[in-house]
Amino acid sequence: MANVYQIENLLQCSICLDRFQTPKVLSCQHTFCLICLHRTFNTQSRTLTCPTCRKVTILKQGPDELANNLLLINLMDVQPVKAKCPSCQKVEKLTVCEHCNCTKCTDCNEKHINDIRQSTKTKLDELKNTNQNALKGLLKKRNSFLNYFLDFIFHFNIRQQHDSILLTKQMDILKQLDAHEQALLA
């Protein structure tokens, strides 16, 4: 039975030495990445020479017209990508972080996600504290303004009462003067 490394070697393009990207089959039955074939395609003679066996394949429109290697495509779907984890250097199936698109093994990815969660929680706590401090400052300013306004209304009412008392006294004096004048004229 084939081990993981043998299967990985089957899924590797012999031109770029990476995992196949859109594997295409030449007339000699060798398979290469579509991108690699585009690089080796001779646009003037419309030919492609196989890098492995040197057999020439004539193409009217270019490497895109070649058949896909469906067997390799299906095998790539079944065989997970294994590579060296950039964090711990273990060769394992790598997963992609949905938050920052970095690739890591499952263990490192879980630690990375926990770090992101902790960092996010810390930032949210800092924002909460900042908002609470800002709210306290706004409440202090509102209370100060409210006290000023109430003080203004209080003094305004006192002034109005004082003016009302003065006006009442002046009206009483005018009534007395009017009564005194009426008495003198009679």
Total strands: 8
Share of helical residues: 55-70%
Overall CATH class of the domain at 4-79: Alpha Beta
Radius of gyration: 45 Å
- Poorly predicted runs of 5 or more residues: none
- Fourth-level CATH superfamily of the domain at 4-79: Zinc/RING finger domain, C3HC4 (zinc finger)
Question: So, CATH architecture of the domain at 4-79?
Answer: 2-Layer Sandwich
Spell the H/E element sequence: HEEHEEEHEEEH
- Which sheet architecture does the biggest sheet show? 3 strands, antiparallel
Which outline best applies? rod-shaped
The secondary-structure class comes to alpha+beta
Beta fraction: 5-15%
CATH topology of the domain at 4-79: Herpes Virus-1
Discrete helix count? 4
Strand order of the largest sheet: 2-1-5
Q: How far is the first residue's CA from the last residue's CA?
A: 140 Å
The whole-number mean of residue pLDDT values reads 87
